[in-house]
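User: Can you recover a sequence for this backbone? Please restate the input before giving your answer.

Assistant: Of course. Working from this structure:
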């Protein structure tokens, strides 16, 4: 559904991940799944899971 990149936030001085949807124009169902996944991950709290903003 997308590509995940390792990123460094220079102001927060920490490493994270950035997930980007594929370059093709996504259909509404794909966008809904992407948002649902982000919302589900945002609710998780664990030292080995990156925070979602």
């Amino acid at each position: 559904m997308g590509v995940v990149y390792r990123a460094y936030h220079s102001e927060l001085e920490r490493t994270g991940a950035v997930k980007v949807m594929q370059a093709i124009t996504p259909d509404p169902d794909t966008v809904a799944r992407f948002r649902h996944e982000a919302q589900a991950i945002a609710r998780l709290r664990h030292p080995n899971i990156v925070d979602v903003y």
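That completes the design. Residues 2-42 form one domain.
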